[in-house]
């Protein structure tokens, strides 16, 4: 069965409490070459299990979740699945939130409103780097 997605696609998991926002982000990220959105969750506990189950390469995480905290999820991923690249994508972008995400181990931090394009470019670059590494094997 051909899914139309390359076998070496960057596997992205979205963690966002608002379903409508998740859908929009999934559509936009899924349109990036070599990116496959493998799952979505609205809370940290569900996300943690699903990120592992889907072998996600990247977790895009809002800080406000239906249950739990995005910062706590980033910290847990940093400790238990350090190969997963964590990207905080949130409207809570003040200096204290940025510092807390950095301390938790986030690889990247973007303001959802002002820096969404930069987040997409970063994911595109990660996908491109992954595709090049896989092709070189």
Automatic annotation (TrEMBL):
InterPro entries: CheY-like_superfamily (IPR011006), NreC/VraR/RcsB-like_REC (IPR058245), Sig_transdc_resp-reg_receiver (IPR001789), WalR-like (IPR039420)
Entry keyword Glycosyltransferase: no
Pfam families listed in its UniProt record: Response_reg (PF00072)
Domain Response regulatory: 11-127
Keywords: DNA-binding, Phosphoprotein
Modified residues (4-aspartylphosphate): 62
Superkingdom in the source lineage: Bacteria
Record-linked PANTHER family: TWO-COMPONENT RESPONSE REGULATOR
Protein name: Response regulator transcription factor
């Amino acid at each position: 069965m051909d899914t139309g997605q390359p076998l070496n696609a960057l596997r992205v998991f979205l963690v966002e409490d608002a379903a409508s926002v998740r859908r929009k982000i999934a559509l936009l990220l899924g349109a990036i070459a070599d990116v496959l959105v493998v799952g979505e969750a609205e809370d940290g506990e569900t996300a943690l299990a699903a990120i592992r189950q889907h072998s996600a390469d990247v977790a895009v995480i809002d800080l406000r979740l239906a249950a739990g905290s995005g910062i706590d999820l980033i910290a847990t991923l940093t400790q238990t699945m350090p190969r997963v690249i964590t990207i905080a994508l949130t409207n809570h972008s003040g200096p204290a939130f940025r510092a807390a995400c950095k301390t938790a181990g986030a690889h990247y931090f973007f303001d959802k409103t002002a820096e969404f394009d930069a987040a997409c470019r970063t994911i595109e670059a990660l996908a491109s780097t992954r595709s090049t590494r896989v092709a070189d094997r």
